[in-house]
Fold:
Amino acid sequence: MRIAHVVSYFQPEFGYEEYYSAREQAAMGHEVHVITSDRIFPFKDASRMLADIGSPYKDRKRPLGAQEMEGFTVHRGKTRFEVLFDLISYEGVVEALREIRPDVVHAHGLWQWGTRKAASVKDELGFKLVIDEHAYSTTYDQTKTFRNWLLDKEYRLLRAPHARRSLKKADRLVAICQETVVFLRDFYGIKGCELIELGIDHRKFMRDEASRERVRKELGVGDGHLLITAGRVEREKRLEHFIEAVKLTGLKDIHLLVVGRGDQAYLERLKAISDERTIFMGFKDQRALSALYSASDLGLWGKASITIREAMGCSLPLLLYDVPNMKDLIKWDNGIFVEPSPVAVKEGIMRMLSDPKALRKMGDNGRKGVMEELSVAVEAAKLLDLYKACLKAAK
Structure:
């Protein structure tokens, strides 16, 4: 099968679905292409993130043209303009599709420029069009602030019209979580979409005892308790509760790792309320992050993130806030929910750390869940089945 993934931003050094899907599908023997811009995603702290992982790139720009990568080909077109953070137009989508002549185009994101361009030549080139969507609400639907009200208006006026035009040409629509299914139904009126959850790199994210010993020695935690939270540092995650909870435990031999970058003002606030038991580590690449998960005893998260699944791959038990979009992440008996408050988090930590045998069992259960449902291999295989069903339906 000849497959083309069309995505606005492509940053394999940070992972993400479009990279994993292309890599895994190429490994399964298919001809795979990625058509994208000459930019990576506009992370607010992209330069720092790249420096943290030792990338040879200093900024978001990437070389134009075609490049071979891990069994598939990446085609990067010149950016024409980029506005409103991530509304981007770039060259070469139609030209690349005409050259590749794919059987299936997998377009990532309903409203993106590449999705719209692919939809415009679908009938001409005769491929099947699969579109996926990661959003599960407009920003305004989540938190009613003036800023989010403006973002919601921008989405409805600028992005949603592009999405609706592309949807008319889609053969299949993929949602990455149940909340996305609900959003697509309520906002766009779509009832028939496929739920295929995001997978993580189960080969990179797995528990490693040698890394555990090394990292704990480097951090000087010895046989003490090591907790971790990772991902973008955002106010919505209420990370201050984790820091306060560690203080409330009264334990001297407990430490919390905060891994990631994001809202700098919020990060400074977190540092101001922390003591020596909280360690801020900046952004880490996948190899380093896997080692940190392996070294830790318990993972804490306040908001859904792909990092939670990566931690599960490393057999790390979870303590999560009891919020709707994380309900399915501990269905394997691999963690607990708590209310988002320092006292509730403290009580949850103490309860879990008091039973090391049960804690390790939870971690093993999480790894099992990844291998059964949440690995990139499982996701890629499900997508291939969907592509084949599209092609079969056309015969």
Q: What stands out?
A: The radius of gyration is 22 Å. The chain is about 45% helix and 20% strand. The chain has two domains: 2-199+375-394, 209-374. The mean pLDDT is 94.
